[in-house]
């Protein structure tokens, strides 16, 4: 769901629609909710943030009930101060939403704080606002701190819309979201069906399940307004297969973004024993096959259980779009997941999401899996697996959630361009590595016009091929342990010490001569060695050149050390320059797999293809200038160091 929405003033009330631009002087619904939240946090009698969210969900239900079902008299009576919320508002809620509001529900805030809350929302018309706008506002209201600890991160609407368009639910098809949150996927699926139905009736119902009571209440109210009786919401734990409301149901379409994270692992044995992916699996190296054992794991990440649940809930031939952490897509240890999935159906598409997609809520990198269940089980998986892949670089907001640049222009959103089938940005590829399903890994190298001219005539070769040809060697760095920090004057080079192709030194991390002598024979560092960052968060692909003035050091394990052994093919400066080219940087990005928040390039560095910029060519002057600048800078820095004394310890 999108992060913010505009507002228009009509008849002295705010009505929010997707196409409305922000109007000066009128705050957005999200901002109104934020104002409301902080007012209650400061002034209400409820001390816990979760209690405030519960109160706010009830408050919004009252507002919707009055607008849709009538009830102005009870609200007016309450606002006048002549009656309490317990006497006027709760009976109204229980009449309007008997399946949503429990008999024991009550407002934790004081009546005065509640009255002021209604005054803040006085100019807002909730019932005339699309469900996604209200969902966005509620998301802004509860914030990442209140839901992130439960692994609940709300999906940007442009991604929701792209997933719905790719899966394309038809007017007669049933749609399930087993972790529906505020109902964004279901509302978007219903809108899509209306747009595509050409006036035909919508017969397929929508089912949403969420075990969070506050989200269930909000989704129920919003989908009742927008989808009517087609929407059915349940306040249940979807993973409990014994729930009678959905126990035996199967659906044409499943669209979801389930909770994810190791911190919220499922430990209930009564749940785990029902899931194949909650059992332990063993790998048989010879056949490269995994086998399920009878041993149930003590805990399992919820996203894996939801993946299996969604596949089970699909009818034969049913389709699924599910958001999952990238750690599942590029980890050989999770190969059993993909083997299991391929016995149930076929992967139809993979969508690579930017790292900023769920920021600022979480830094976890995600991708989207699209899947189609076999019409009849079992079937043998395709030997040549071809799928559609696309890579989104931008998602409509930055890592802080800002949707516009300082000049007011919106952040680009690649999900919008990928919304419709067959648009540019999609390609069909063969999954040559059965356990590597990171979409960008399969994207071909692309050159810009300027770069194409610059490297014209240069041979393209991988780092691995150069190693096989003994043109260079590649080896790892080491970890010395924090106990060695500050024990001497020998630099311990870490990823944070590399900038602008040079190595800076943090004296607090320098090590002793004894530590240096322990690692020097293994690392065998020499002037001309190239350091490449292969692990970390944001520095992967950064490079530095060791020189006569700084090669006496110890290099961290997050680096690969490349030594050129045959300079008649390529020299260190030419390699360094090649690694700065846009197409090579994009290749590096495509080869990095993210586990939770940490990226790793590892041995996939050997797959990186670089142009051999040796000898005469269009690149000669540029490479020579690059070489000369780095040499002069190193000489100048070395001279400066001879002119300054050692820094005294404070």
How would you sum up this structure, described in words?
- The chain is an alpha/beta fold and 650 residues long.
- It folds into three domains: 121 residues, no CATH class; 222 residues, Rossmann fold; 195 residues, DNA methylase specificity domains (Adenine-n6-DNA-methyltransferase TaqI, Chain A, domain 2, Alpha-Beta Complex).
- The chain has 19 helices and 26 strands.
- It has a nine-stranded mixed sheet with strand order 5-4-3-6-9-11-10-12-13. The chain has a four-stranded antiparallel sheet with strand order 15-23-19-21.
- Helix 2 packs parallel to helix 9.
What are the SSEs and their pairings?
Elements: E1 8-10, E2 13-15, H1 29-43, H2 49-69, H3 72-79, H4 85-96, H5 111-120, H6 131-147, H7 157-167, E3 175-177, H8 184-196, E4 206-209, H9 213-227, E5 231-234, E6 251-256, H10 269-272, E7 279-284, E8 289-296, H11 302-313, E9 314-325, H12 335-342, E10 345-352, E11 366-373, E12 386-391, H13 414-417, E13 426-430, H14 449-454, E14 460-462, H15 463-468, E15 472-476, E16 492-493, E17 498-499, E18 502-503, H16 513-523, E19 530-533, E20 535-536, E21 543-545, E22 554-555, E23 559-564, H17 572-578, H18 582-591, E24 593-595, E25 598-600, E26 609-611, H19 620-643
Helix pairs in contact: 1-5, 1-6, 2-4, 2-9, 3-4, 6-9, 7-8, 8-9
């Amino acid at each position: 769901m999108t992060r913010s929405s505009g507002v228009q003033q009509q008849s002295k009330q705010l009505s929010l629609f997707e196409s409305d631009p922000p109007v000066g002087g009128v705050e957005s619904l999200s901002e109104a909710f934020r104002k409301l939240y902080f007012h209650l946090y400061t002034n209400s009698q409820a001390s816990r943030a979760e209690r405030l969210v519960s109160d706010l969900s009830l408050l919004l239900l009252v507002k919707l009930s009055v607008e849709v079902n009538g009830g102005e008299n009870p609200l007016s009576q309450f606002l006048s101060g002549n009656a309490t919320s317990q006497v006027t508002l709760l009976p109204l809620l229980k009449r309007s939403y008997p399946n949503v509001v429990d008999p024991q529900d009550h407002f934790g805030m004081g009546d005065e704080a509640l009255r002021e809350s209604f005054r803040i929302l006085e100019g807002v018309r909730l019932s005339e606002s699309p469900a996604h706008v209200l969902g966005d506002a509620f998301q802004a209201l509860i914030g990442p701190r209140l839901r992130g600890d439960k692994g609940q991160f709300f999906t940007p609407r442009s991604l929701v819309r792209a997933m719905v368009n790719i899966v394309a639910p038809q007017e007669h098809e049933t749609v399930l979201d087993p972790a529906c949150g505020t109902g964004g996927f279901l509302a978007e699926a219903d809108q899509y069906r209306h747009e595509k139905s050409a006036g035909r009736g919508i017969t397929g119902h929508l089912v949403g399940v969420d075990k969070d009571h506050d989200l269930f209440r909000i989704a129920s109210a919003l989908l009742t307004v927008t989808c009517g009786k087609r929407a059915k919401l349940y306040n249940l734990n979807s993973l409990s297969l014994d729930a009678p409301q959905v126990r035996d149901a199967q659906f044409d379409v499943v669209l979801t973004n389930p909770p994810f994270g190791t911190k919220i692992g499922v430990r209930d044995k009564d749940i785990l024993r029902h899931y194949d992916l909650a059992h332990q699996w063993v790998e048989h190296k010879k056949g490269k096959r995994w086998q399920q054992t009878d041993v149930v794991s003590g805990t399992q990440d919820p996203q894996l259980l939801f993946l299996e649940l969604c596949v089970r809930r699909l009818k034969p031939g049913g389709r699924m779009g599910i958001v999952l952490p990238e750690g599942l897509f590029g980890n050989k240890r999770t190969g059993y997941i993909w083997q299991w999935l391929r016995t149930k159906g076929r992967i139809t598409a993979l969508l690579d999401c930017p790292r900023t997609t769920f920021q600022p809520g979480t830094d976890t990198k995600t991708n989207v899996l699209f899947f189609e269940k076999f019409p009849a089980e079992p079937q043998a998986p395709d030997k040549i697996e071809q799928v559609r892949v696309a890579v989104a670089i931008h998602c409509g907001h930055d890592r802080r959630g800002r949707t516009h640049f300082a000049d007011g222009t919106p952040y680009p959103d690649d999900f919008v361009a990928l919304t419709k089938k067959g648009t540019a940005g999609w390609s069909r590829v063969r999954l040559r590595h059965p356990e590597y399903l990171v979409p960008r890994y399969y994207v071909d190298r692309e050159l810009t016009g300027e770069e194409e001219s610059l490297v014209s005539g240069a041979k393209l070769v991988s780092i691995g091929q150069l190693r096989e040809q003994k043109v260079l060697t590649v080896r790892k760095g080491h970890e010395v342990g924090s106990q060695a920090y500050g024990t001497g004057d020998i630099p311990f080079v870490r990823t944070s010490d590399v900038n602008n192709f040079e190595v800076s030194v943090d004296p607090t991390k320098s090590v002793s001569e004894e530590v240096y002598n322990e690692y020097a024979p293994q690392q065998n560092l020499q002037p001309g060695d190239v350091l490449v960052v292969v692990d970390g968060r944001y520095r992967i692909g950064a490079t530095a050149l060791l020189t006569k003035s700084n090669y006496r050091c110890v290099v961290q394990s997050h680096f690969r050390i490349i030594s050129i052994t045959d300079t008649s093919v390529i020299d260190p400066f030419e390699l360094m320059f090649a690694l700065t080219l846009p197409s090579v940087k994009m290749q590096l990005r495509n080869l990095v797999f993210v586990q939770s928040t940490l990226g790793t390039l590892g041995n996939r560095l050997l797959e990186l293809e670089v142009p051999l910029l040796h000898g005469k060519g269009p690149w000669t002057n540029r490479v020579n200038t690059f070489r000369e600048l780095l040499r002069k800078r190193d000489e100048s820095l070395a001279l400066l160091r001879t002119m300054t004394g050692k820094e005294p310890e404070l």
